[in-house]
Predict the 3D structure of the following.
Amino acid sequence: MGFLAAIIIGGLAGWLAEKVMKSDMGLLMNIILGVVGAIVLSFILQISGLGSGAGASFSWEYLLTGFVGACLLIFIARLFRR
């Protein structure tokens, strides 16, 4: 995936996760959560044999993976804050 596309889709995935998880973060953190969430969840899915790796410039799979991964990261961060 192209660098610019990863930032845009990662930002969108992070923003969606922020709204669903009712957290308050800025644009930069949304991008980071979306991109890192996609990387982490893709790695987990590939290890388990379920992932295929998104390679196109825009991929619904990457958006969904980034969203779920970002939600997972927000959930884990909340566990450590308590």
In short: The CA atoms of residues 5 and 13 lie 12 Å apart.
